[in-house]
Design a protein that fits this description.
Largest sheet: 8 strands, mixed
Order of helices and strands: EEEHEEHEHEHEEHHEHEH
Number of domains: 1
Structural class: alpha/beta
Helix content: 25-40%
CATH class: Alpha Beta
Low-confidence stretches: none
Length: about 280
Amino acid sequence: MSKIRIDTSRGIDLAADFVVPVDSCKCAVVFAHSFLLDRHGLGWFDVFAKSYRSAGYATLQLDFSGCGDSSDDVICVENQIDDLKAVCGWLSERGFERIILHADGSGALSALRAVTDKVQALVLTAPILGPAEVSWEDVFSSSQLAELERVGRTRIPNDQGASRPYFVVGKQTLGELTMVDTEKLLQDISLPTLFVVDPQTLASQWFAPLVDDPRSLLPPSCELLFLDKLSLYGELPANYGKADYAYPDAEKVDFLREQVVSWVTRVVPPCQEMT
């Protein structure tokens, strides 16, 4: 594994893990994590990345700006779009002409708007696709809310025990997470896109516009994968599949990994000669 740094057009330095398997054919999967997480995606990205590499894809797991080990920045969709474009450009400069974006949660909002000419497909797990009503008074302290009103941004302590002590979010950030225009977000999708929807996502406000008739809003290039009893929320232990670790959904996770990678290899084979 190579720990790399990538510069953005804003002068922000991004941290990422980049791994190229020996049988790679210059096709890469880029991971886009959800709100206030990092390149590991609570362990889910590490597990998916192993499956992709076994199938012949290079993987790049980045920390969005203001997250993980990347440079400090206000967390917002606009900045994350720029981050993803910088990463795609970095890969293209190194000969990776075909890219798959694998995004989780709020990362889908950025991935859907960061499609460059090198991006061939998207995988969106537990995606935010619609508006939601959030009582921010239950999320932020009174002093944080006052700071948001006064200067337009505030700090959120990082309680995940990572190296970053805090995140910076702005009023724009909160609007991006709640005022999602579903039709506008989805109408221009022209690439093969797999939506992976678990029970929690299906029951959330962020997926509500698609519950009754999801196909009515999704372009023909999109496919839906509904998970019956597997939750994509919470941490996935690295040793979830070991016999001495009693992770209850290990077989379901393995099956999901197989389904996702099988779909990706079908729509974007890792080697051109396989098309």
